[in-house]
Amino acid sequence: MATGGGEKRAELLRRITEEGGFAFVASAEKAAAGDVRAAEAAREMAWEQLHSAPRDEVGAAWRDAYALACLHVAAPRGAGGGGDDDRRAALRALDMGLIMGGGLLRAELEDAIARVVADRRGGDCEAAAAAGDVERWKEGIAGDGDLADVLKLLPVKSLSRKKIERRSCIPLEAFIRDYFIREAPVILSGCIDHWPARTKWKDIKYLERIAGDRTIPVEVGKNYACTEWKQELITFSQFLERMWSSDSANLTYVAQHPLFDQIKELRGDITVPEYCSAGGGELQSINAWFGPHGTLTPLHHDLHHNLFAQVLGRKYFRLYPASVSVELYPQTETILSNTSQHGGSMLKGHMTLKLNWMPKAKVDLDNFDETEFPKAADLEFMDGILEEDELWSRSFVLLGCGFNFCNYL
After folding, report:
1. For 390, what's the count of Cα atoms within 13 Å in the CB-facing half-sphere?
2. pLDDT one-digit tens code per residue, 179-227
3. Residues 234-253: b if buried by 16+ CB within 10 A, e if exposed
């Protein structure tokens, strides 16, 4: 253990002791000496603390404690020479530390993951994707579908009003002058065709090899406003398997997750467009949306300006001006107060970069209930379809929604 790392851990255990976590500290000290049972016990105690109160009320020390316990649990399993099951268990423990833990030991978690991944690849392991999945993947990526048929799946009045302006890749100065300052949306084409993701992510074997054994948080359900919506923690391989599911009530997708901070290899497949510097401040976040057909974003507003990149597939967007927020019936619950009750999308928002991998598929989109929500029926909006290799910049003063559709299942 490096001296710096040892000091961090000692200070953390002192903080946990001050918060009454004597049992955790005792188990953590045994775990550091190689006691596997003690490591599991410490992780369980920290997990209980994480779920003892709402997320923003859980102390940072216990999040760091959970990360420490995950490092202890992974250590014997991730040691060189272990089998595939041990390596997968080690990766899951370390990923859970990244996802649920604090930031104190993040560098140690990332270093441990890098060692486990290097050991796996050193064994020349092949991607586990079955031949049938590979073929279905290729068909889904290649299948453009008839756009006329696709348009029939969209809500009533779609593409009948003002369309979002579409431009070829333009200089940053023109983007700032003509769109960012004016707070106007625009679709930009030809700006990400150089991204490695544009070709690499078409290969399911590549995704399996790079990320298959990594644990990620996913959302299950048509959208987060549905009563059946839930979150799960599964491996990326399990997520790819669910892409073929025909169960529309069990749609599984990755959303609002800093996937590229967690899986560094995927981060190397993209570059941040210069347009993200338009606001003059720091890039707030880079998030990824991975999902199958049938997923949609309810009408909502975001907290930042967004630059949305469509890597694969296509997505329909609808935007409303912020001035009509009341007519779009925002939810009354505090946690969903940025979301419309009738499920359509409200957007508000520093610049973030959003990435969308969405093979071409249809979406089961409910029409607005004009009886229940009469004010929303005749509101003016602008909309458009974002195709592969296009960027969409949306202003923080606009409200909008997104629907994904494909044809490969």
Report:
1. 22
2. 998 889 999 999 999 999 999 999 999 999 999 999 999 998 776 666 7
3. ebbbebbbbbeeeeeeebbb
Which residues contact residue 48 at a Cβ distance below 8 angstroms, ignoring those fewer than 6 apart? none
Torsion of CA 172, 278, 391, 99, to 10 degrees: 140
Q: Which residue has the higher pLDDT, 118 or 125?
A: 118
pTM for the model stands at 0.83
Assigned token pair, 109: 């978690």
Query: In terms of pLDDT, which residue wins out, 183 or 295?
Result: 183
CA distance 276 to 305: 9
Q: Judge whether 349 and 283 are in contact, CB under 8 Å.
A: no
Cα–Cα nearest to 364, from 161, 230, 221, 238: 221
9-23 pLDDT, tens per residue? 999 999 999 999 999
Render the burial of 378-393: b for 16+ CB within 10 Å, e for the rest. ebebbbbbbbbbbbbb
What is the Cα gyration radius of the chain? 23
Q: Interior CA angle at 284 toward 278 and 285, to 5°?
A: 115
User: Token pair of 194, please?
Assistant: 């150089």
Nearest Cα to 52, choosing from 20, 6, 7? 20
Secondary structure of residue 179 in the 3-state scheme: helix
